[in-house]
Every structure is written in structure tokens, then in C-alpha cells.
Amino acid sequence: MTQENKLVSEIQKNDIEVVRVSLTKYKGKDFFDLRLYYRDDEGEWKPTKKGICLSQGLFPELKQAILTLEKALINQKRE
User: Fold this and answer.
1) What phi and psi values does residue 9 have, to the nearest 5 degrees?
2) Which residues of 10-44 are buried (b: 16+ CB within 10 A; e: fewer)?
């Protein structure tokens, strides 16, 4: 059981945490992963259990949810 990861993007949450967006392949299936990583005492980034891993086929639904969130944030600023 091998797992391949390709880092796509990284969002700095704070000094010791980042959110990594990665493409992954597991057991021959393609996924994308949004995962919180923390910096350990040696300065290395380690994954946490906090995150979500979805089939790449679900990306259009996630994209639509993010676009809907963007509209909600814009409307919230107007209020």
C-alpha cells in the first residue's frame, strides 16, 4: 500500500501550523487532501488528523461550495 503526495499549495495558519493542499493517490485511486500540519520540536512539518481527503471527482462540488462561501462573505461585509 503506497501513497503518493504532490503538494499543490500551502496556507500559513500561524507560526506553527499550515494547511497543505495536496494531490494524493492511494490504492490506485486519486484524491485531494486539505490537511493541517504542525511544526514539531525539531522544526519538521508533521500532519495532524485535522483535515479532509476527498475523491478528485468531488472537486466540482467543493469548488461550488467555496464560491457560495465567497458570496456569503461578501454579503456579510455589506450587512
Assistant:
1) -160, 160
2) eeeeeeeebebebebeeeeeebbbbbebeeeeeee
Q: Which domain holds residue 43?
A: 3-78
Taking alpha carbons only, the member of 14, 35, 13 closest to residue 23 is 35
**Rounded to two decimals, what is the model's pTM?**
0.82
Cell numbers placing 8: 499543490
Domain containing residue 67: CATH number? 2.30.31.10
For residues 20 and 7, is the Cβ–Cβ distance under 8 A?
Answer: yes
pLDDT along the chain (79 residues), means of 10: 82 96 94 96 94 97 97 91
Residues 6 or more apart whose CB falls under 8 angstroms from that of 1 comprise 26, 27
Count of domains in the chain? 1
